[in-house]
Amino acid sequence: xxxAGYGVGAETRGLxxxxxxxxxxxxxxxxxxxxxxxxxxEPLRVALAGQLKAGKSTLLNALVxxxxxxxxxxxxxxxxxxxxNGPSPRVxxxxxxxxxxDVVVRRGRGAEGLPGAHGLTFDLSALRWNPGQLRxxxxxxxxxxxxxxxxxxxxxxxxxxxxxxxxxxxxxxxTIIDTPGISSLSxxxxxxxxxxxxxxxxxxxxxxxxAVVYLLRRLDTSxxxxxxxxxxxxGAHGFxxxxxxxxxxxxxxxxxxxxxxxxxxxxxxxxxxxxxxxxARDVAARFATELERTGLCQSVIPVAGLLAFAxxxxxxxxYQAFEALAGVPTDTLAAALLSADRFARPDLPLPLPPxxxxxxxxxxxxxxxxxxxxLIRLGVRDSATxxxxxxxxxxxxxxxxxxxxxxxxxxxxxxxxxxxTALARILVANPGTEADALxxxxxxxxxxxxxxxxxxxLGHLRAEELPFAPADxxxxxxxxxxxxxxxxxxxxLPSHTDVNTQRDRALTAVQKWRTRARHPxxxxxxxxxxxxxxxxxxxxxxxxxxxxxxxFARITLPRNA
Length: 561
Description:
This protein starts with 7 loop residues before the first helix and ends in a 16-residue tail after the last helix. The chain contains 22 helices and 13 strands. Strand 3 and strand 4 form a beta hairpin. The N terminus and C terminus are likely disordered. By secondary structure, it is α/β, with parallel strands linked by helices. About 45% of the residues are buried. The protein is globular, with a radius of gyration of 25 Å. Strands 4-3-9-2-10-1-11-12-13 form a nine-stranded mixed beta sheet. Helix 9 runs antiparallel to helix 14 and helix 18 packs across helix 22.
């Protein structure tokens, strides 16, 4: 889409096609390039990362709206697990030598026949391995499977990762990668996450994730150091104060560009009180200030993951239990909810059996129980309404909105960043061909593509103090895609606004922000932010003047003299 750098996916495909022609006689390299092309057509890959017991698997279940990830501390939580859409539920283990084995899935049961609080369990105790090697292009995120060669049991074979296929609308749009805790007592377990998201060295490795959701229970040194590794590897610091398009998009980049922070288990911050999310928002704001000042996260959102997941899977029997608790005198129930163990004691005068009370505490937490009972007392009269209210108050809806604006609506840019990163590493590792001529353009795109610049600026904008009126700051945030990437959203107009009005608004924005950039008192960061907004508006003018299907010229390699 013109000079603002939109439509990067099309140019990325052109560069990959040119590279494939240059490496037509190099089977291994060509396979790597074909993998890059396939990645552009696959769903966006989002990794969940964070310290041990941060609540990654619980948040995954909440986002998908189904109980598909084990949440108890088993061997599965020590492995990288890929979740993608599939025609039927299936879990496959992959060994380090390429062999694979089907995994038995068991579902725990809770009180009165309800699903257990810890949901599914993946049984890795007796895997029957198929020793057939994966082909080079076959990866756990792909649908293809190696052919059956015969099954063998080998207890000594090490599981490298798991791949879960599950019918899900969410997974049809986004492949989710659940990673081990970075602060695991096992150094090897922590290294799996580091290697997945920020691989080091000079070897050619395709980026595994396009974006990251990083879960925080507190903000300590290990969190900051890990986020800094991701930021340094992705070029996320490229905006900064040295230019609107930093120079960090070199061939060494290998990590995801988009990172969103989540203050997980937010209900625990307020000790399960009814106002716990308010305390969590204050904590999230403090984390955001510290992280966004360095561009390590684009947003930080508080989420009560346990409550969000329980609300998404609320059963009628659980709603009836909350109704019964709502009839208990307030002081009696408050005393019972001093702790989870006390709430489940059989000698308490409560209208629910102890097993069901223990189930509710494990599924919803004390915060969720207090909130559900309060909502029923305030007038909620059915399970569907209660589920919606609990979801909204869990912070999940806010997180979904941020994920949509920052990730889903920018999926083309994020996937292109991953593909360009891989292409740069391939070209550097395999010099001496016609494809060498492509490397300067690849590096330029990584550094200068405007969509990437917008993402980097969004990571800095709220923490930097710009001397603008609130209305101007809101306009700047909108123009660079902070409220959505559609033209009318960037311009702050209704969706039905006619094209001429949108053009006039975009032209006014170009003039306004270019003038601001030239202000004699503007420092470098302010000038770069204004220029970025102006370029975003110029990109909108291109869109509004040209059909969205305008073809891109095919990229060709220069002929040798």
